[in-house]
Amino acid sequence: MNIHFIAIGGSAMHNLALALHHKGYTVSGSDDIIFEPSKSRLEAKGLLPVAFGWFPEKVTADLDAIILGMHAKPDNPELVRAQELGIRIYSYPEFLYEQSKDKTRVVIGGSHGKTTITSMILHVLDYHEREVDYMVGAQLQGFERMVHLTEENDFIVLEGDEYLSSPVDLRPKFHLYRPNIALLSGIAWDHINVFPTLENYIEQFRIFVDSIIQGGSITYNEEDDLVKEVVEASGNSIRKLAYRTPAYTVQNGQTLLETPEGPMPIEVFGKHNLSNLAGAKWICQNMGIDEDDFYEAIATFRGASKRLEKIAENKSTVIYKDFAHAPSKVAATTRAVREQYPDKRLVACLELHTYSSFNAEFLKGYKDTLDAADQAVVFYLPESVKIKRLKEVTPDQVIQAFGRESLEIFTRASDFQDFVFHENFENTVLLLMSSGNYGGLDLDAVRQKIADEF
Length: 454
Hints:
about 450 residues, alpha/beta, Rossmann fold, UDP-N-acetylmuramoyl-L-alanine:D-glutamate ligase, Protein-Tyrosine Phosphatase, Chain A, 3 domains, seven-stranded mixed β-sheet, six-stranded mixed β-sheet, 15 helices, 22 strands
């Protein structure tokens, strides 16, 4: 097939381009800007556009399909040209469904935990040399790409994102996959820019559950009240399999999972990650991995990229970075680190970065989310609020929303970076949470600072 990508540089899009190139398809693409690591990865396979921008002349009648990324606009000149020529235009999830409609589709959904659960499943399957197709939202150790597609594999494991499919297809991505086997980890209001009310957001998960193929199954977190309500109210003719957080203990900074063979040390930690593990176990068992084999493999799982990722450590200090940005994720991540390191001071830093986090109503959801930290810091850039054309967010408003008078606020990148590099972090865990880049914080320099201290 001859495929052209409009907005090829995105994290998901460039991985799909690499997967189709690996499969033997002819792949081309355009974008107006491409950042690392997408740029280098595309260049290594000869897929990096020669020039950035949109070029309608790239769209020709001999193309079999266009794959349209969210970064493009509805009036994109290449898209307009494709529409004029009558070329089939797919969104990213539409094309993944087209590639997997004859396979058993395993879709992992939820406001939080879906990347980690998908990563756990793929790690276990890879450990036991079970070949599957997949799409996951993080780069995994030992995996060349975040997307893998074949003709021969029976299963495909898909991370089911609830965000919109494309500029011209406003359905959530996970509505398009029609799973045979599904999982739902949690529901906590997010993406307020496209789902303006909690009820509107919850409705997307009802549609997801009802989209499961009749006779299929939904594995769901019964400890999440909204998940339990949505799944149990569905009239879809599917099996409903509940899971909950397994028993575990923490001893001297080591999490021990209770198993039929006794306590087993594992690399991941935190109640939310143990819940994720329980969901992954059920899915793996549905895919033919028995319980003992699951435990053997999961003991070696070190976590998904950007999810409680340890970036530096010496005898006194530990630094983690995490993708947490929504209130439920921030609270769960902060509590997890507190539980794992009860004898260290915990400094939790959150960057407000997303459209939702700057919304006055949504901001109230952060109340008490940093309470597990000894010292709590919030960093945001007022210019980011202006770029998103939102009403000004003041430091006093943030302090009131978090319900913590001692909350430290930084609104300049240089001030936040000075704090990270000059604060005394002896006997401390520093937790950096953001879906952005902490105002350009040089994480390599942070690592070196910690290394130099001992």
